[in-house]
Amino acid sequence: MAFFEFNSFLFEACLAAALLSACSAMVGCFLLIRRRALLGDMIGHSVLPGLCVGFALAGFEKSPLLLLGGALVSALLAAFLQEYISRRSRIKEDTSMALLLTGFYAIGVVLLTELQNNSGSSTSGLETFLLGSAASISRSDLYASCFLLLVQIIVYSLFLKELRVNTFDPLFARAQGFNPNRYAQLISALTSISVILALPAVGLILASALLVLPAACASMITRNLGPRLTFSALIGLVLGFGGAWISTLHSQIPTGPSIILLHTAFFFVLAFALFFKRKFAPEETA
Amino acid sequence: MNTPSIVLEIKNLSVRYSGAPVLSDIDVKIESGSLVCIIGPNGSGKSTLIKTAIGLMEPIRGQITYFGNQTLKEARSKLSYLPQREGIDWDFPINVIEMVLMGAYKRVGLGRRLNKAEREKALYFLERVGLKDFAKRHIAELSGGQQQRVFLARALMTEADIYFLDEPFAAVDIVTEYMILELLKTLRDEGKTLLISHHDLHSVQRTADKVLLLNRELLAFDTPEVVLKSPLMQKAYGGMRGLL
Fold it and tell me: Does A87 touch chain B (CB under 8 A)?
């Protein structure tokens, strides 16, 4: 049976999927806490114009560096605009995110159609970014996700207390001499990079689910930020690997949906388990 | 007896919010070791004065000097701020003692871990606000009055010299209010300076050394006996005074 045949290429792809799921899972905890779950969705959709420009600059070839570079510029621009609009206007955060999400995506769709009409060549290099596939994960993706996970672990180990106070109570933090905007930008940047690394594997539409689902599962398990980050990363790691592995066994299931479905199933199993545990737990006497 | 030194001097301060003036030409000197209540009707600029003094809002004009000659930036480590409770997400994943420890973050320094001494200090301040047994509880499990006391313990944790408390009595029960008042008086007796925005005029009379009456401009700054009997109260509150 295929399951038992060790294929180092597929194993590497699954490992990369696991690591990048863990990356998104950790930073996702901060998005959920700040009620900015939509940010991942916004960044996921806002990469499309950058991808198209990168594709055109590469001469309609699939150049990972130009594609992901374009995506990163596009994502950071959207993240920066969103921060700026929220800070400088009366428009609420969710409204500004919805505005930029749809705006950037619409530009992306126009550019994509234009590319399909004019290039005369295939845009298949781009289409893998829409749904993602384990086969398009390269070894450099593996190294990049490994590096990003390491960076995140270091950032959270060193600056958890600063991230905590600046996220929880920005006014108090500012009065103490911190700069809460800088920490918000750090989270936005980590989110952008996580989403872009996840693009080849899960695609731009589903990338935001990797930010939200493991963090949501972890939030049901613990009410402490530190352990929540660890649980979230572990859930992302295991389910990311499992989902990618399932999609390599069944070629008709794309990698993105496979990973996300596994996360969703886990979320509901966990929710039911916790519901029944509470329902049938002995009454607390203390 | 030594004359108390001036710890905060505000000169000619004007603040606008979205184009409209909120505070105009405020001049005031706060003495060390005094408990000052800032009173005034809703929208009179009480929170704005506190926020501007601590650097959360930019004035369009004026000067703020601490301890004789220090700028806000130089004095920041000696200042503490208690924000309004409504601005906080009480579902945040944090327990009571961790919230109190936030008061030590700046002192401990970037990237450094909190040591045992800081944790013991946090427990001591929780004991002072009567919540030592709640240290491991999640903040959402507390009542409104208990949340306000954790806020106060966090402010104490900063070990500042001047405390700016924005509506510390909002939505607290009478027992909590009495407890907080007693604690603030003790702090004042320990030599700390406190500026509190407050709406209950009866407890102001019992507690404050000085009352700062505000209604977009400084109407009066004197002892409670003088300010509360002054005709300026009528000017500030209009016909609402009977309701207070």
Answer: no
